[in-house]
């Protein structure tokens, strides 16, 4: 929450964006952070403990490092394709649920129906949106 001072919303924006980017999203089946960067987001305390391990695992051979990077990029593309497929599945599932709640109605000739005409302007003037 912002609190008493409503002008302080910009101070909370970074935290809100970080929370949004690192939270699991059902439609894509992963974190948005992982989708962009290809790896899980680690907290600063986790990074402190992993720094020594990463230093030991550093590979200084450029050809092996290049091959490793190509593999990482391929995995990232596969992850993005998988997220795209998950989003399609999620959309189909929500559409199926939505369509199941809609009543199928049959209209006959001479039935009275409500026709919505978006071009019809009943209130022109004061109530017009700007």
Brief description of this entry?
Helix content is 55%, strand content 0%. With 130 residues, the chain is mainly α. The mean pLDDT is 78.
What does this structure look like?
The chain has a domain at 13-97. It contains four helices and no strands. The protein starts with 8 loop residues before the first helix and ends in a 29-residue tail after the last helix. The radius of gyration is 26 Å and the shape is elongated. With 130 residues, it is mainly alpha-helical. Helices cover 55% and strands 0% of the residues. Keywords: Nucleotidyltransferase, RNA-directed DNA polymerase, Transferase. It comes from Tanacetum cinerariifolium. GO terms for molecular function: nucleic acid binding; RNA-directed DNA polymerase activity. This is Reverse transcriptase domain-containing protein. InterPro entries: Gypsy_RT_Integrase-like, RNaseH_sf.
Please render the helix and strand layout as text.
Blueprint: H1 9-21, H2 32-37, H3 44-56, H4 62-101
Morphology: elongated
End-to-end span in angstroms?
31 Å
What profile does the largest beta sheet have? none
Mean pLDDT: 78
- Rg (C-alpha, Å): 26 Å
Q: Total helix count?
A: 4
Estimated helix fraction: 55-70%
User: How many beta-strand elements?
Assistant: 0
Query: How large is the share of residues in beta strands?
Result: under 5%
Q: Quickly give the structural class.
A: mainly alpha
Compressed to H and E, one letter per element, the order equals HHHH
Sequence stretches where pLDDT stays below 50 over 5 or more residues: none
């Amino acid at each position: 929450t912002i609190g008493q001072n409503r002008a302080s919303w910009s101070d909370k924006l970074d935290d809100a964006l970080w929370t949004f980017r690192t939270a699991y999203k059902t439609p894509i089946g992963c974190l948005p952070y992982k989708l962009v960067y290809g790896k899980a987001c680690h907290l600063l305390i986790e990074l402190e403990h992993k720094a020594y391990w990463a230093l030991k695992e550093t590979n200084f051979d450029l050809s092996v490092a290049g091959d490793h990077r190509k593999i990482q990029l391929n995995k990232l593309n596969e992850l993005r394709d998988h997220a795209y497929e998950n989003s399609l599945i999620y959309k189909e599932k929500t559409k199926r649920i939505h369509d199941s709640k809609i009543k199928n109605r049959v209209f006959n000739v001479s039935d009275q129906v409500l026709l919505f005409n978006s071009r019809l302007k009943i209130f022109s003037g004061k109530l017009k949106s700007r």
